[in-house]
Queue: 2 jobs
Job 1
Amino acid sequence: MKASRLPDGQVIRDGAMRIRGQWSVAWMMTPVAIIFTLLFILPSLNYFVLSFWRVAAFRVVPDFSYANYARALGQHLPVLLYTFKLALLTAMMTTVLGFLLAYVIRFRAGRLAPFLLLVTLLTLFGGYLMKVYAWKTILGNEGVINTALLGLGLIDQPITSLFYSPGAVVVTLVHFLLPFAVLPIFSSLRGVEEAEIESARDLGASGWRVVSDILVPRCRTGILAAFSLCFLAAVGDYVTPAIVGGTISMFGRIIESQFGQAFNAPLGAALSFVMLFASALVLLTASLLLRLWRPR
Amino acid sequence: MRHIAFMSRRQMLAAMAGGAAAFASFGPAAAAEKTKVTMFGWDGYQTGLMATQNLAAQDVELAFSAMNNNDEIITRLASGGNDIDLITPYMGYVPLLAAAGLIQPIDDALVPNLQKVPKLFRNDRNIMVDGKRYAVPFTWGSGAMVYDPAVIKTAPESWFDVLKPEYAGKVGMSDDPLGNLLLAAKLVTDAEVPTRLTRAQLDKAIAFLVKLKKEHLRQIAVSFGELADALARNEISITFNGGEFVKKYAADKGKAVEFAYPKEGTFAWLDVCSLAASSKNTAAAHKVLNEMIETQSQLALAKETAQGICNVDAIAALDPALKFYPYDNLADFGSKAQFYQMPPLEASDGIMTWTDWQEAYEGFKAA
Amino acid sequence: MSENGLVRLEGVSVSYGTFHALRPLDLAIGHGDFLAILGPSGCGKTTLLRAIGGFQRPTSGRILIDGQDVTALGPEKRPSNTVFQGYGLFPHLNVRQNIGYGLRIASRGRPEIAREVEHIAALVRLQEYLDRPIDKLSGGQRQRVALARALVMRPKVLLLDEPLAALDLKLRQTMQEELRRIHREIGGTFVFVTHDQSEALSLATRIAVMNEGHLVQIGSPEEIYQRPQSRFVATFLGEANVLAATRRAGQVTFAAGGSFASKGADGDIAIAVRPEVIRIAPSPGTADLTLRGQVRDRLYLGSHLRYEIGLADGGRLVAAADATDRRNLHAPGDEITVGWAHDAQVLLDK
C-alpha cells in the first residue's frame, strides 16, 4: 500500500534491486548451505534413522522400533529434567550477569569500555580447563573461600557443599559462558542510544522500568542469542559436571556413554534427538516469552 | 579398566571434540622394505615400542592410532575396511572378540618373551580360548582401595569401611560401571562369580551403590586422575574401587596415599594385545607382540603409565619408586584380586547381560 | 532578573576534576519565558540544561523549580521534561506509544492517555501518524514526536537540547514557527540550547549567552543584540565592528581618528558598532561622529551591499548599505566618510 504512494519508477527500481539482492544473497549462502548440509543435515538424518534401530551382539541392526525413545523418555527422563533445570539456571544467571556487564560496558564504563570488552574477550583465551581448575582452588575444602572462613573463625569445618555440588557446576559454567552472553547483548545495546534511556527516565521511568520497557525489548535478539548460546552449551556439557559436580549425572554423559562404554549408538541417537527437541522447545518458549514482553 | 585408568583430561576433551584420534606414524621415514604394522590402542601404550630401536632393526614400522574406549575396538574391527593389525583391549573382551571372529590366535613360538611373563598373567583364562592364545598380556592392576594415611592411620580391612559414619562425604569413586558393580556384587550378593548375576542380585548391588552414593559419596570421578586430584586436595579420604596407580598419580601431585586389598577381595585387570583377524602382516605383528613385553619396552611402559608390568626381568630392574605393585608375591595378589570374565552378551538362564548391567548402572547414576 | 522565577539556579557549578564545565552561576527563568541558552560549542550550555533536567548533578549550588529544591532529584522526579538532540525516541514503539509512555509510567487510565495523546498530537500536527512506527517517520516528524512526548507530561518547564540542529534549513524555519506557535498556544516555559544565534534571536523571549563556562549576559534579544556588554557577545551575536579608542578627560578618541564626549575613567576602551547602523557618506547632521576611510572591497548580497573599509589606523570596518540606494555605490579605492549616531554605538566593558 505504501508503495502505491511512491512514483512508479521508484517501485520498479526497488523491485529490480530486491531481485538482484536475492540472487547475490543466494550465492553468498551457497557455501554455508553446502557445509551445513554435509556436516549437519546428512549426519542428523543418519542418526535419526539410527535412533529407530537396535543393537545386538555389538552390531547395529536395522529395525523400526520406538523402544529407544521409550527408554529415553522413561528411564532417562529424570536426568533430562535435572540437566535442563541446571542448564536453565545457568543460562538465566549468565544472561542476567551478561546483561549487567554489557550495560556497564556500553553506558557506564566511558573510556574504559574497549578495555573491559577486551578483558571479557581475553577470558575466552583462558581456556576451558583453566577455569574449571581455578574454581577447584576457590571452592574446594582447602580452597580460598573455605580457608578464609576457617581463618576468620566463622566456621570450624569446611563447607563441603561448595564444591562437588550442583552449585559448583553452575558457578563454573556461568564463569565460562559469561563472554558468550556479554558479546551478543553488548552488540544489541550498541544500537540503543543513550538518549533513549535518558528520555525514559525523563518521562518518569525508574531504573527497573528503563530495563523492562526499553532495554529488554530493544535487546531482544541479543538476549535471546545469549540465552540460547548459554543454555545449549550448558545443557550439552558433561565434562564440567563430571569434574566439579561430585556425584551428579548429566544427560550429555548418558549420551556419551551410549556411544562409548555402552556401545548403543541407536539409544544414543534417540537420546540426542530427545535432547535436541527438548532444547528447541525451551528456546522456542524463551523466544516466545521475550516476544510477549511488552512495556505495560 | 584401562579405559577409566588412563582416560586423562586431555583425552576426555578429545573424546568430547568428536574423538578424532590422531593417526601418527613413528620411527624413521618409511623405507620401502619395511613392513608397516598398525596398532589401535590406548594412547601411551606405544611408549614401550618407541623406547627401543628393536622394531626398526627387525624392519618393522609402527603406526599407532589412539582409541577412546574398548567398544571402539569392536566397532572399528567389525566395520572392516581398515588396516588395523593389533589392538589393546581389556582382557574381559578377548573371549567376546574371539567369538565374534574379530581376532585370530597368536603363535607362542613367535613371542619368546612370553616366557618372561609370570604364569598368573600369561595363561589367564580370559585370553586362552579353546586352548589357543588370543592375547599377550602386558600390563595389569586391580581395583584396590585407596586411602589417605594422614586421615586413616591403619589400612582399612574391609570395603564396608567406606560406610563408616566418620567417612561420610569423604568417599570417592571412579565412574567405572563394570568395576563398581562387580565389586558391589562381590560385597552384597551370594553370586559365585560376581559377573554372573541374576536380576535380584544385580538390583541388590545397585541398591548398595545407591545407598553409598546418597549417604557417603562425595565424588564420582570422571577419571583416576580426577580421583587422585580429589585425594590430593583432601576432598576425599577413601575410595570405593580404585587402582594402585592412583598412588603414583597422587604422589605426582605431592600427596602420599596408600592402597589396600580389603579382605572381601577385589577384581584384577589385564590389558592385552590381540591380533586382528583381518591383519595381513601377521609375521611383523608377532614381532610387535613380542616387543610389547620386551624388558626395556616394559620398563618404559611402567614409567609412562605407573601400571603393573609383566616381564620378570623388567620387574627386577624396575625403579623402586615404580615398584609399589605386589610383584614379590603375585600368588597372594591372585588370591585377593581375581580376573573375572565379562558379563555375558546374550541372555541365558536368567543371567544379566552386559547391557542389563549398563542400564542398571545408569539408574544408579541418575539416582 | 526576577527574584521569584519559576526556575532558579543559585551558585550552580559543574566541574570534572580540574575542568570546570560550568562556573558558579545564578539564573532565574520566569513563567512563560522562552529562554535560549546560546553559546559556542563547549561553552557549558548543554551542561546547564542537563543540570536543570536532572541529568547532571551540580558540583555546587541549588536548583529550584517552582519553589521546590530539586537539586538532589533524578530526572524522573522533576517537573521538567526534555527534548533531546537526538530525540531519543523508542524505536520499538509506535508514535502513539512513544507519546503516551510518560503517562503510562504515571499510571494514568487508558481513556485519559488516549485523550491526552490525541490532544497533544493535534497540537503538533501528528494526528495522522499516530500508528506509524518510528523508523517510518521523517526527521521533522520525529522532532514533533519528541516534542509531543515531552509536552504531554505538561511539564512546568520544557527543556530542548539543540532541538532543530538535525533538520535541514527549510524544515528548521518551519519548526521554528511551529515552536513559537506551540509556546504561544500552551503558554508554557521553554528553555532551549542552541549555538545558532539567528535561531536564538528569532525564537526566544530571553537569551542567556554563555562562554567558557560563564553566563556572560542575559536579556531580551533586543538588549543582547543592541547592548552587548562584552566584545564576545557583540561579535558572537551578529556582526560587529569593535574599534579601539582611548578616553582622556571625558573625551573619547578613536585610534582611527574622530572623537566624542563620554564620561568615565581614563584609559583604553572598545566600541562596538553594527555594520547596518553605519552610514556611508552621511549627509551633514545625520551622523554624530564620522571617520575617514578607503573602500577595500564591495560585495553585492541582494538585499544589501557589504563594504569593507580600511581605516587610518590600519583597522578594518564592515558596513552594510541599502543596495537599492544608488548613492551607496562606491568602488574599491574610493575615499569615503562613514558615520553613525551616538546611540547606535556601544561602549564595551572591554
Job 2
Amino acid sequence: MKGLLGFREKCISFSEEYGFILFPICKFAVAFAAFRMINASLGYMAQMNNLFLVLLMSLISAVTPVSIMVLLAGLLIVVQCYAIHLLVAVFMLVVFFLLYIFFLRFAPNMGLALILMPIACQIGVPSVLPVACGLLGGPAGVIGVCGGGVVYSALSVVIQNAPSLQKSTSSGSLSTMIQEALPLLTLLLDGLLKNAELMLMLIALAATLLIVYFVRRMSMDYSWHIAIVGGTLSYAVLILAGGFFMDMTVSLPQLLLSAAAAVAVGEGIRFFCFQVDYSSTQHLQFEDDEYYYYVKAVPKTAWLERQRQKRKQAAAQKKQAAVQRKQAQSRPAAVPSPGVQIAPASPAISAALEPPVQQRHPVSADPLEMPAVDFRDQLEETLRNIQDI
Amino acid sequence: MDVKRIRRMVKVERLICRDAREELKIARYYRSDYLGMMLLKNFFFITVGYMIIIGLYLAAKGDALLEGIYVADLTFMVTMGIGGYVLLLLVYSVLTYMICTLRFAKAKKLERYLDHQLELLQEDDHSEKDVKHPGRGTV
C-alpha cells in the first residue's frame, strides 16, 4: 500500500510539474483517436482519410480549447457524410444543431464527454464514461454523455444505411432530388427516433451517471467504492432488463467487459482523486450561537502517511540526540582553558538538552501508531478559509 | 520574497486569464440585462429548433399525414403544433431562467472574491511603500 501511495504521489507531482505538456499530449491522443474512428467507420471521402490531415487536425485540437476539437470532429463527420449523399450531410448537421439547441448549450464544458462517448461505444465499453463523469463531474455530465450516445447512434444509422443511400443520386433537377430525398430522410429519421436500443442506452447512461454521482456524495463509508460498483451494476441490470422486455439481443460478454472496464477505470479515478482512511474517521459534535454541528472527518491517506513519516523522522532524531547525549556524558568533562572557545553544539544536541516543551498534540512512542489529530482545529481553519472565499 | 503575496497574485492572474474568464464576462452585466438577453436568445433558439423539427416531421411523414385529411383535423393539428411550441418555449424559458440565475450569482460571487483579493494586494502594496519610505514627507 505504501508503494502504491508513493507511486500516486509521484504521479500527481509529475502531472503538476509537466502538466503544461502532458495535457496537450492527452488532448492530441483523444483527438487522433476520435478522428481515426470517424474515418475508419465512415471513410467515404478518400481525401479526408489522409494521415497527415488527421495529424494536423489533432495537433490543432491539442493546442486549442476542447470546443475546437468538437467542431473539427463534427466537420469531419459532415464532410464524410457528404461523400455518401448530400442529404446525409444535411441530416447530420441538423442532428448536431438540434443537439446544441436543446441540450449542449446548457453544458458548454461537456465537449470532452461528447467526443469520448462515441469512442467508448465503438470500443464496446459505454458504461465507462458515465461512471467516470459521475465520479469527476456533476449531473450536467448527463447532457454530454447522452449527447455522445446520440451522435454514435446517428453515425450507426448512417453506416447501416450507407449502401442504399449511396445508390440514390444527389444530382439532377430539384424536384427529382426532393422526390428521392424524402424516403431517405424517412429512413434516417426512423433509424434514429424509432431506435429502442438508443433509448435504452440513453436511459441506462443517464441513470448510471446520476447513481454514481449521488452515491459518491453520500457521507457513508466507502461511498466511492459503492458508487462505482452500484453504478456499473445498475447499467448492466438496466441493459439486461431492457433487452429482455424489448426483445433485443444483448451480448453478455460485451456487457461484462464493459462492466469490468467501468469498475477498473472508476477504481483508477478513485485511487488518484479520493484516497481516505476510513479507519481513522472521527465524529465531532459542537455548537455556536446559530447552529449545532455534527461533523464526520475522514483523513486523507496521503496526509496520514506524511504525518507518520514526520513522526518517524522525529523519533529517529530523538534517538540520535539521546545517543549523542549519552556519549557526551560518558566523556570526561573538559575544562575550557582561558582563550579557547567551545564550538556551539549541533541543533539536534541543543534540542535534546533543552527542557522538554509541552506539546499541543502528544506524540506516541510508536511511529506507526495513528497520530493524534485535532480535527476540531482543522475544521475551524477550513471554515475560516471558506469564509475568506 | 513574500510567498503569500505571490500566491495571491498567481491566483488572481489565473482567475482573470483562465478559470473565471466567462464568469467575469457575465458579471459585467446587470442581472436583468443578462437574464433578458439569455431569454431572448433562448426564444430564437427554440423557435428555430421547433421549426426544424416540424419541417423534418412534415418532410418525412407529410404525405401520409395529408392523405384524406379534413379541415377539422387540420385545425386540430395546427392547434397542437402551436400548443407544443408554447409548451416547449415555456419549459425551456424556465430552465434558462434558472440556469442563468445560478450562473449570474456564481459570477457575481467570483467577482466579489476577486475584488477582495485585489484589495488585499493593494493594501500590501501600500504597506510595502510605507516600509520603503518611512520618513517621506515628514521632514
